[in-house]
Amino acid sequence: MKRTNLLLLLLLCPLSGFAQFNFPVQGKVEIDSMTSKVLGKNRQYSVYLPKSYATNSDRKYPILYLLHGLYDNNKGWVMRGHLQDVANKVIDSGEACEMLIVVPDAGTFYNGYFNMEDWPYETFFFSEFLPYIESKYRVIGDKQHRAIAGLSMGGGGATAYAQKHSDKFSSSYAMSALMDLPNAGAVQAQDKKMGELNRTVSENSCVNFVVSADEPTRVKLQSVRWFVDCGDDDFLFDVNIAYCQEMRKANIPYQLRVRDGAHDWEYWHSALYNALSFVSDGFLKL
Fold first, then answer.
1. Is 41 helix (H, G, I), strand (E, B) or coil?
2. Tens of pLDDT, residues 32-45
3. How many domains, in total, are found in the chain?
4. Which end of the chain is more exposed for a tag (fewer CB within 10 A), N or C?
């Protein structure tokens, strides 16, 4: 019996020492949800909370809304884009300030960021979601400390939102963005829901918005920091370049980054590092 007790004690000692090891505090991602009266549905979202959020209850933070792409939801940026790890690395290195990052769920199949039949998502985002998030969490809640970014369909959504609501966002970061349909006028699709999505993308063309902008609108667009990030092998490359060309003609400053890459998570994961640094610079700009 004594030998058994001694063996048990030796086995427990390493575990006890391990339990006393202090791991560094890190920011973390949480999954939550809200009920939308506009959509008539319960909508999930993911939120990254920086490491000081739990310990500094008096502090308010800037916020980034990070939009996902087609056939995805709020968990894509968390699971495949490694949002938590990237945010912790960039913030801990001093390349970005502490911020909240919120990923909404715009529907996994054939929905999107614009209003369409039985899916008034843009109305939901600005009348319900944004006010809900900024009342529940400690955010500063003004243009200077609010940014938006996204990939693919979400990149087009982020750009269009910042175009139409330039008073709300200091920066917009578009990755491989669906700025317009790759083939002009191709709004038809065999699938009715996809056809409806195509219609809303065409009607909310980021390229056409710049082309048709009058002088007061161009002045408003100049108050936003714009960044376009697209791979040279991306099927949306030409649309992104067309958008940048129109921005240049309209004398609206922007940054363009073209790297080796395609329309995939390898590209978007790497782009996220620069996106967080870019929007942080906007938050800190006086």
1. strand
2. 999 999 999 999 99
3. 1
4. C
